[in-house]
Amino acid sequence: MNAKCRTTLRVAVATTASAAGILSALGLADPAAAHDTRVSSPARSAQPLTTAPRTAAKATGVSHARQWPTLRSGSRGPVVTAAQHLLAARGHAVRTDGVFGVRTAAAVKAFQRQNRLRADGVVGVNTWKALIVTVRSGSRGHAVTAAQRLLAARGHAVKTDGVFGVRTAAAVKAFQRQNRLRVDGVVGGGTWNALAGGHTGTTPATRGYVLKFTKNWSRTDHSTLALYRNGRLVKSYRAGSGKGSTDECAKGRGWLPSGTYKILGHQTNRNTRIKGYAIHLADKACHPKRGQRAVTRGDLFIHSNMTKDGASRWRGSYKSEGCIKLSPPDIKNLFAHLNKAHWPSNLILKVS
Predict the structure, then answer these.
(1) What element of type H or E holds 238?
(2) Dihedral (CA of 176, 254, 156, 50) sign
């Protein structure tokens, strides 16, 4: 239903935490983590993930001013899973369970010996650089799965099937645009670094629940809406916004303007042109192109194609008049998660 979004309400803006919140919640290391060194260099102590005790250490700069995460025994999360897939791609038998246990540590040490690195079982900057594999359209295997896992953890809707197809390429390009990387759809060193340990260029994570809409510039109806709790991904959904135009100032056909939105309210039985399940968003000024006048976009919702009683009238179209549109099963699933969380008063939406 290319429904016209309308209504008015209001909310409390959530306070943002430091960028370390995103890193720790995603299973990333402290940004100040020290890197591992080659055998010929003096060893530096490596910082653990936030799942282990944190100690002070000097940060080591890398290209794009990002830090590689430091992983060690006790670390957990999607970045550990990605490292395990990369070890598997290099021929090491590990469980890709996101838990840095004895087997993972042994595989890391074996890999380090093979590559003449200090065999301490800690994945730091030099181990990362030796471990990563460049993947692109047509690539298959564990290295592709590693990239897909990290893309999913960053809020992009991709299948973690180890096949670098059209959707994965689109997600990589979207991620590269967000992080001001060369947009070529190839996961090389800089993209691996940004996926694994770099900041995303977005606002730091907020404590509590946050919705994040990530735009797919190639296919606007293959964008992503993700729900995070304390920076950790809870669930992501395919979403659309607008009618195919990437112009944020085009009322009724352009997609949602970038920025942070207050959540003004939610309903399961809405009975205007937007019916059924709907989350009402605050108005937002668009980001005009040069020579274009800014306009305030209003009547904005996260919604689906439903009757007022929540029954599906879905026809498979993710297009809407400037709102965010989900399929009926997905918006019901999103409501279920937020119902369980008692619809936090500081819930916000971030659009990037």
Answers:
(1) strand 232-241
(2) positive
Instruction: Look up residue 342 and give its amino acid.
Output: H
Beta-strand relationship, 348-351 and 209-214: parallel
Q: Return the C-alpha torsion angle 56, 61, 65, 70, nearest 10.
A: -60
pTM for the complete prediction?
0.51
3-state secondary structure of 124: coil
Residues in the chain: 352
The Cα–Cα gap between 274 and 4 comes to 7
Q: What is the pLDDT of residues 157-171, one digit of tens each?
A: 788 899 999 989 999
| 351 DSSP β-pair partners | 213, 259
CA distance 147 to 153: 10
**What is the Cα–Cα distance from 155 to 234, expressed in whole angstroms?**
10
Q: How far apart are CA 307 and CA 136, in angstroms?
A: 43
Q: Give the bridge partners for 210, in sequence order.
A: 228, 348
d(CA 66, CA 68): 7
- d(C-alpha 229, C-alpha 22), whole Å: 10
Mean pLDDT of 172-194: 91
Cα separation, 219 vs 348, whole angstroms:
25
Please state, rounded to an integer, the average pLDDT across all residues of the chain.
Answer: 79
Query: Is the Cα torsion angle 264, 266, 272, 275 positive or negative in sign?
Result: positive
pLDDT for 222-267, tens place per residue?
Answer: 888 999 888 778 888 999 998 988 889 988 888 899 889 999 999 9
Q: Which residue has the higher pLDDT, 293 or 141?
A: 141
**CB 292, CB 282: distance < 8 Å:** no
